[in-house]
Design goal:
By secondary structure, this protein is an alpha/beta fold. The chain has helices at 17-28, 41-53, 71-84, 110-131, 157-177, 200-203, 205-213, 223-233; strands at 8-11, 32-37, 58-62, 90-95, 135-144, 183-189, 245-248. It has a single domain (8-192, 223-243), classed as Rossmann fold (3-Layer(aba) Sandwich). The protein is globular, with a radius of gyration of 18 Å.
């Protein structure tokens, strides 16, 4: 009897924060992982080593999701990794890589807006498109949005608008990829203690307390909260969840 191969997950922005946590969660549950990094090669290699220590295959590839001209070359690198692992397809894609801009709408520059579009909307759109031939039928895609697409905090309007776009894109992907059995969902984190946005939620005591006071479960989110949620959507038992926005915020601003 042939052995069922371990699933392979590709996670963008896997060198730090939520991407790193997700990569380690999936590896602990038996997945091989291809992760991307933009500039933090040393940190990415540390994640690779941690995954390998768990007995799984791992590779880190450089990618700037805001530069779509590099996607064809990246796909060829992914194919090379798959050949090395004697595989032809990935099973899971997590579009996680991101960056933040905090500015009132009246002060948001066109350059900031364009950067957000490139990283949070155009990048996931065309990277997913390029990777579709490599995603196995019956696979899964998870796109990362934000609680800010539901509730509003001044200064995040442009960022949140991109995440709103990702949520709509998720539903269309779910519909169009349905014939291939590929389920596509959105995970929308609330405020999380990471280095995102300069680590404000983690390091600013006043902000941390404010968020906790507005969260039903009484604390700020941790990377483990999000990594666990993403991993749960990629398990066999959640295959029937499709086209959904799942907020993982502990109940912020209910």
């Amino acid at each position: 009897m042939s052995q069922i191969p371990h699933p392979i997950a590709l996670i963008t922005g896997g060198s730090r924060g939520l991407g790193r946590n997700t990569a380690l969660k999936l590896a602990a549950e038996g997945s091989d992982v291809i992760l991307t990094y933009r500039g933090q090669q040393a940190e990415a290699q540390q994640v690779v080593q941690q995954i390998q220590a768990l007995g799984r295959h791992a590779a880190a590839l450089q990618l700037d999701v805001g530069v779509s001209a590099g996607f064809d070359g990246f796909v060829e690198q992914v194919k090379g990794v798959l050949r090395d692992w004697n595989r032809a397809h990935i099973d899971h894609l997590v579009n996680n890589a991101g960056m933040g801009v905090h500015a009132p709408l009246a002060e948001t520059t066109e350059a900031q807006f364009d950067a957000l579009v490139a990283v949070h909307l155009k990048g996931p759109f065309f990277l997913t498109q390029k990777l579709l031939p490599l995603i196995a039928d019956g696979g899964r895609i998870v796109n990362i949005s934000s609680g800010l697409a539901r509730f509003t905090l001044p200064g995040y309007g442009a960022y949140a608008a991109m995440k709103g776009g990702i949520e709509v894109l998720t539903r269309y992907l779910a519909k169009e990829l349905g014939p291939r059995g590929i389920a596509v969902n959105t995970v929308a984190p609330g405020a999380i203690e990471t280095d995102f946005g300069g680590g404000a939620v983690r390091d600013n005591v006043g902000l941390n307390r404010m968020v906790a006071s507005q969260t039903a479960l009484g604390r700020v989110g941790l990377p483990d909260d999000i990594g666990d949620a993403i991993a749960s959507l990629l398990r066999p038992g959640t295959r029937w969840i499709n086209g959904q926005r799942i907020e993982v915020s502990g109940g912020m601003f209910l």
